[in-house]
Predict the structure.
Amino acid sequence: MVLVQALVNGILIGAVWSVLGLGKQIVLGVIHFVNFAHGHLVLLAMYLTLFFWTVTHADPFVLLPVVVIVLGLVGFALDRLLVRRLIKMGERSQMIATIALALVIENAALLIAGPQPRTLTSSWSEKAINLGGLFLNTGRLMGLAIAVVAFAATWWIITRTPLGVMIRATSQNRDAAQYNGIDITRVYAVAFALSVALAGVVGAVFVVSTPVDPSTAWTFLILMFIVPVLGGLGSITGTFIAGLIVGVLQLLSTTFFDIQLQNALVYGLFVLFLVVRPQGLFGRATDQGQVSV
């Protein structure tokens, strides 16, 4: 039963990791932009959810659409002020600038909210469903449902809408897309805003069950790269499955090993894939990160 509990909890958490990886996947696959501040945008969403909850005392999951919209607008603003300029400057400049952005967000959180961990008290996080000795936290169950909806909505946008056609075309060949009349600047803006909005989903879900402090964002840093790479750069399906795998491995590690070794199995599998199958689970050696199903 301990093993089954770890597997179930891993799937519940892993679904949210999938959404984190999907946001990163879009930026890497469409814009080819290295964003080290993605985890800190999740942190921003966590603090925004806390702020709105403190002011309104509304259900945190009711606040989620508001947080996602705000993060989407933040994404558009960052694209206009930062991303458009950095795309032309190369990966080193992108890395330095986004690390600087991450530090700005972290220190702003430290200045405004203080260093102490903050917790959102909700009935969702305090209740659990008992299924014959298997306990399912209601907050994580709701997080799973939201993650699946967010993933399905993103999949639908990318595969079933005219906007998705433009996103995939730009991902596969930017110059050809531009020659065919696609405004790639607008596509980049929408893709980046969508990525940041997905960070908003992750933050709003995680804050219900996880205490937040300004340093929390760094826990997302490595995982936000591992999930899309493990799933295969450009593969939406691979990202979802990789997120579940990461969540399960984390829970197995904490169940059978010390808590400090939480990511030991994840890192081990990641290194193994880099050696044996560097293109990931569903990636192909010729894809070069283009977004696909």
About this structure: The longest strand covers residues 128-131. The chain has a mean pLDDT of 89. The radius of gyration is 19 Å. The beta strands are 128-131, 134-137.
